[in-house]
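=== How it folds ===
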Amino acid sequence: MKTRHGEAELKVSTISDIEVEAGSGNIFADLGLAEPEEALAKAELAFAISTILARRRLSQTRAAAVLGIDQPKVSALVRGRLSGFSLERLLRFLQALQQDIEIIIKPVPRPRARGRLKVLAATSGQASVEDESAIARVQARSVAT
């Protein structure tokens, strides 16, 4: 069976009188929101940005200086309030944080009728020399102002 969004219906089972429904992997689609793939991509990009900011131990004020936005927008970003942020803007923030971005375009596999949007983030456990250098530059700017 198909849902109103054209995706497969989720499996529902009952365990000890509690109904459990398996998710699709996209909470935004499961909630029936418009443009669920875009919403998930934005959430994943915002999570990557927040992770980098935390790893670099940047305050919201310092992060705002690096990203070229004001502190309240950084607050909204790290809290997942993403309505004011486009995918393009989030990608620019990642570039400002010295992250490479690769976009791969490939044909849709036959059983699927429509292409999809997916974000994959490479992770590293420690800050690089470039991370430390960026932090030092932001700190120097903060002292100068």
Summary: The longest strand covers residues 12-15. The chain is about 45% helix and 5% strand. The chain has two domains: 1-34, 35-144.
